[in-house]
Amino acid sequence: MTDPLFWLGLSFLLVAVSLILVLLAALPALQAVARAARSVEKLADTLSREFPPTLEAIRLTGMEISDLTDDVTEGVQSANHAVKQVEEGIGSAKKQAKSAQITTRSVMTGMKAAWKSFTRKSDRPGATRRSRDRLPPWQRQLLDLRDRPGSMPESYSSYSETPPTQRDRPSDRSPRPEESPDFDPPDRNR
How confident is the model at residue 17 (pLDDT cuts 50, 70, 90)? Predict the structure, then answer.
């Protein structure tokens, strides 16, 4: 057994048997790899057909979402503008209503005063005196002169009909309505 050719042949035989056993054991694995390769090929083919339209659809969807976002933004801005206009309209309507209320009160107060003045009896004591107290001083003097018989000179008789000019008026100023004791200012806080 010392023959080297024998050992060499036996080695080759054992290597060949080992290779055959490895190939027989690797055959199912190679078949699985072949099936996987076919699946990958089919998947790549499907992706190459389906992926571009899908990407295009995704891109179009993104553009539509962007357009919708712009439309919604414009709608919100126009709604804000409309709300501001409504608020301004309400504010101006409130101002006009308040102005109309003040005007109505002023008119009603004036009408009440006119009615009281119109229906007031002149035979009450002090009625003419109170109306004289409201007159400016130069008119009171003329009334006093006119009421006294014979005390007014002939030259002043024309003044009973017309008010005197600025030079004929006394130097003291007439009281303003606010300074009069009977003055009742309209209440503007209501």
Answer: very high
